[in-house]
Amino acid sequence: MEILFAASELAPMVKVGGLADVVASLSKALRLLGHRVTIALPRYQALESSGLMLARRLTPMVLEGPGERVEVTLYDGRLGSGVDLLLLDIPGLYDRKGIYGEGGQDYPDNARRYGLFARAVVEVARQRARAGTPFDVLHAHDWPASMACYLLREQRSAMPTRSVLTLHNIAHQGLFPREALGMFGLTEEHFHPERLEFYGKLNLLKGGILAADALTTVSDTYAREIQTPAQGFRLDGVIRSHGRKLAGIVNGIDYAVWNPMTDPSIVARYDAEDIANKGRCKSAILHEVGLEIRPERPLVVSISRVVEQKGSDLLAAALPKILRGDASVIVAGEGDPELMGLLKAAVAKAPERAAYLGGVSEPVVHRLLAGADLVLVPSRYEPCGLVQLYAQRYGTVPVAHRTGGLVDTVVDLDPALETGTGFLYDEPTAPALVGAAQRALAALTHPRWGAVRRRVMRLDLGWDRPARRYAQIYRSIAQA
User: Fold this and answer.
1) What are the tens digits of pLDDT across the range 115-155?
2) CB atoms < 10 A from the CB of 233, how many?
3) Cβ-based neighbours of 179, under 8 Å, separated by 6 or more
4) Which residues contribute to the annotated binding site?
5) What is the pTM of this model?
6) Which of 6, 72, 74, 384 has an alpha carbon within 20 to 30 A of 320's alpha carbon?
């Protein structure tokens, strides 16, 4: 099949969160299944230093609108995975340091940036159809690309291409003033409760939900949660009304990137059959961050964006009690300045055993997970989560809140450690996190702990099965 991805992030070059990893890994997995995938992406400033070989198309694409004519320059490239890349460049819109904003503030012209991006993606699809080589499916990811599904539906008579929208996190919906309709080339009739209007605002994600031929989200549990008032972020009614076309598909991880047996970022390699070198990895990361090198001491890590959703405030409140024991703790991540301050203050109480690293590169993430015994995942809600999957691949056992994709990827260990793959807790509170962490730390001395590590390392966490489910959805809507 011919598949066009529309996305605002792509790992490792342009990344804010897990969306970037999914776009890169899922497209690669689909390519391995024999499909041809093209990723349409804004030509951000960060891509200038990516080393990509790009060919500029000589003739710009023109977007016509009321009183406006916008030229879009197209650049063709190819990723090492064999996936085609199509970069869309509009002067003044994407040549900035950030993706969505800077200094914690969104760019004020994001409606224009992603409105024109969506229009350009649909025009690419229209031109391909006119040339007799249409895309079978347009697969849009989250709010920045969601309106491509809506605009495609408006032009359904001009092309056979069907659309899929993946909801990676419905807390981010792309809300803009009514006046932003013009950025999408749409008239006032589209600002209606049955269309794009949402509590007096223009809601881009809602538009994609209404128009897409199929909806997916990144875990079965999250697919159920977002249809409830508690976790639907006011879109639950819209999603319920389109529930027949919604599927939950748990994300995978790229084994070529996340593999402790071949990982160039870690000091010593290991696998489920021989895990001894994990101890060397622990000593190495303790040395790297300047903590006491005591490999017999448990090492607990947390790696996430520092925001309320990820439970960073709960982690800060829990750390003093977790550190009362003999564990070493390393916290990595950046985000909300106030929450970062709380985390810094918490680890400062045990400077020989605890460290806060702020933002870290991906190689450091690999080394943290290779050296750790446990990873804390205290998210208040979590559509899927990737860090627990990466951790399990490296024999690092997750301690996680029972929510969203964490429910689908972590099975609570029984007291005898005979079944299960991690430690779950029910309430999003600091005491509940402390209780689960203490349960996990106590388990480290259990005779079966080595078997637990081997068990989590042998889990099937790859992209092959999820990619086949996506391909099945593509075929079902293309044939409808």
Assistant:
1) 999 999 999 999 999 999 999 999 999 999 999 999 999 99
2) 16
3) none
4) 15
5) 0.95
6) 384
